[in-house]
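We both want to read discrete structure tokens more fluently, so let's practise on a single case. Would you supply a protein for us yourself, any chain you care to pick? Would you write everything just below, so we can both look at the same thing?
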Amino acid sequence: VFDPSMPIAQIQQQVDAITAQQVNDEMGTNRYALLFKPGVYGTPAAPLVFQVGYGTEVAGLGASPTDVTINGHVDVYNRCLTPDNCIALNNFWRSLSNLTVKVAGLADCRGSGMFWAASQASPMRRVNITGGNLTLMDYCTAGPQYASGGFIADSKTDFVINGSQQQYLVRNSSVGGWSNGVWNQVFAGVSGAPAQSFPSPPYTTLATTPVSREKPFLMQDGAGAFSVFVPSARTSTAGPSWDGASTPGRRIPLSDFYIARPSDSAQQLNNQLARGKHLLITPGQYEIDRSLDIRRPGTVVLGLGMATLTSDDGSAVIRVGDVKGVVVAGLMIDAGRENA
């Protein structure tokens, strides 16, 4: 958890160490959440610049994405499997949310925008990117530079270079333009999206999103208290939920959550659910030897840092009963040694 009072060199050292460990660790077991308290990090003259590797979530802790500003870059580059085979096809399992990036720093090709060259399970949510392009491919490395799809929601960006991205879904956002399509690009409730033209170019564009609910997020208020904000389900919407107004929803104090750790057993987590607690699942890998049963309406299960729940004995990892308003978010759910 980073605080704006920390020296930028200290933050840079910590994020660089995690990047060095995670950027090529595709099948590793480490999970990280890099959480930024409200405030400003870096300056145009001394920017904060780092890459996001596997199993890493980067998120702001404000009520709005504008409450946390990073002057610099939060990038994902191609992964070079060999010197002449640099691709984003296997850049999975990372996320960026609830903050502003004012693009600054770096030089030449790398300074041309913020790079998010990722494919699948690497969402961007509630981000505000200003001062430069957002590019979804990495054109600064050797080829072939392929990328294979992603997801942006509840966000606002300058111009987007889609590049080699084969497919993409953008929902309830505002973009300063979109460069091209490869196979299939879908926009729902997105200001600045290309006009409907499928199959050539391959754009499917809806003026509004029929039904949606944004992901819950951890936040800190002005008094320093933590809570989880749960956005409301909405119908027939367009644009970011936070742009010009507060996101509709409810705030749940952290005291109503059980803070889960990888050492907790499934039985311990079920005991907490039975007591009426929500679950905040901290980063790590969890061996689940019996189903987590959610039977109370309105229960929230929120993972941080790509927390991973693995079925240990073939049980379904999570079972949600016939109750309303349950929200499960921010988790990777895996099969294990037995078919699940």
Observations:
- The longest strand covers residues 94-103.
